[in-house]
Amino acid sequence: MTTSLTPYDAVLLLSFGGPEKPEDVVPFLRNVTAGRGIPDSRLEEVGEHYYAFGGRSPINDQNKALLAELRTELAARGVDVPVVWGNRNWDPYLTDVLRDLHESGARRVLTLVTSAFASYSGCRQYRENLAASILTLAEEGRELAIDKVRAYFNDPGFVAANVDAVVEAYERLGAAPSPQAPLVFVTHSIPTTMEVASGTESRASYSAQHLDVAAAVVERAAERLGHKIPWELAYCSRSGTPFTPWTEPDVNRTLAALKADGAEHVVLAPIGFVSDHMEVIYDLDTEARETADELGLRMERAATAGTAPEFVAGLVDLLVERAASERGENPEKVTVGALGPWRDVCAPGCCRLRAGVESTVPAACGDPAEMSLTR
Ligand SMILES: CC1=C(CCC(=O)O)c2cc3nc(cc4[nH]c(cc5[nH]c(cc1n2)c(C)c5CCC(=O)O)c(CCC(=O)O)c4C)C(CCC(=O)O)=C3C
Ligand SMILES: [Fe+2]
Question: Which residues does the record give as Fe(2+) binding sites (predicted)?
Fold first, then answer.
């Protein structure tokens, strides 16, 4: 039996984008922060992170690699649709990519975003980008219908890739210290208002999603390693002004607290990132490592899901599942942990609060009424 993505005629991998060379850094940061009230001092600081790596973000190459693996996996299952990659903040820009897709005949596109967790930044903001592109293209007389697969933080493939990475990191630490070495899961900090808005009575918040998947990863990794793993969740990459509260603790703080409690070894697992983004190679591999060195803590950083085969297969399962749902079938939705599958279509008003301000721009892939929101 061949797999079908009917009714979709194309797949879009939608990501953040990043600079390719030093001259790109400032324009990229302007794109990211347009109208966001991020202080210049923070932008200069983040710019330095990019310059330290030659003005080039690792994210584009990682997306190209993921794109290639998605194409291979879909082809292996007999699916023959165009699979393209577009970004929110840098070339190849989303609107251009969608215009090309339309030109080549696509009318119904299924989107996969490179954020596993749901919050304004990882979900609704991408929906707003999609809406903006759809509306721009509609003005050009190009009609496109776009859906987005559900949040996949608790997908078995994503979890399996993270379990492998944690087990490998403990193996690198060596046999002796493992039982006493705590595991620190790390994700992107967000404003606490965004965190609160990401949860409702019927839906776990951004941090609760992380705690749920972290518990699932720990359970499986501990079983494989044959010892208990003490763990916690920490955050990195806070921005905004010092007066705006963001989710805490910061990972550097956590490292100091663990050292004070007697730890000598630590494993960092950046589950909040699907690949080795700048936050991972700078905020963790550079900054947090410096902290660990100063503290005399030996640190191993677990790999991100990247292009791990289980992860890629899980993403393709999600594409196939959503297509089946759209055909009116009732596909089984397999998840790990206590939270169950995320909604295919976001509820009205979902994740609208960004940093204390309710977003009022059109959003796709949700309640159709949200396409006609106006500024
Ligand atoms: C939750 C979350 C994810 C994870 C989910 C996901 O993966 O999407 C994420 C990913 C990313 N964030 C990235 C880069 C940046 N994010 C910024 C700013 C912000 N991020 C936020 C949140 C998140 N961001 C927030 C609440 C802000 C404040 C301003 C705003 O509300 O928009 C800024 C501006 C400077 C600064 O404030 O730090 C930059 C440069 C890159 C590219 C990295 C690379 O080049 O490898 C990636 C993948
Ligand atoms: Fe970010």
Answer: 188, 279
Residues 177 and 269 in one domain: yes
- Which protein residues touch ligand 1 with a CB less than 6 Å away? 16, 18, 29, 32-33, 36, 38, 42, 46, 57-59, 114-115, 119, 121-122, 188, 190, 239, 272, 277-279, 354-355
Choose the residue to mutate in 61, 125, 206, 239 for probing ligand 1, maximizing ligand atoms within 8 Å of C-beta.
239
- What is the extent of the structural domain holding 296? 156-301
CATH of the domain at 135: 3.40.50.1400
Which ligand has an atom closest to residue 353 CA? 1
- Among residues 272, 301, 330, which one ends one of the domains? 301
Ligand 2 centre and the CA of 123: distance in Å? Answer: 12
pTM: 0.96
Pick from 29, 32, 41 the residue to mutate for probing ligand 1's pocket: most ligand atoms within 8 Å of its CB.
32
Q: What pLDDT digit, counting tens, does each position of 124-171 carry? A: 999 999 999 999 999 999 999 999 999 999 999 999 999 999 999 999
**Distance between CA atoms of residues 216 and 212, nearest Å:** 6
My answer on whether 86 and 114 are in the same domain is yes
ipTM of the complex: 0.92
Residue that terminates a domain, selected from 245, 266, 301: 301
**69-116 pLDDT, tens digit each:** 999 999 999 999 999 999 999 999 999 999 999 999 999 999 999 999
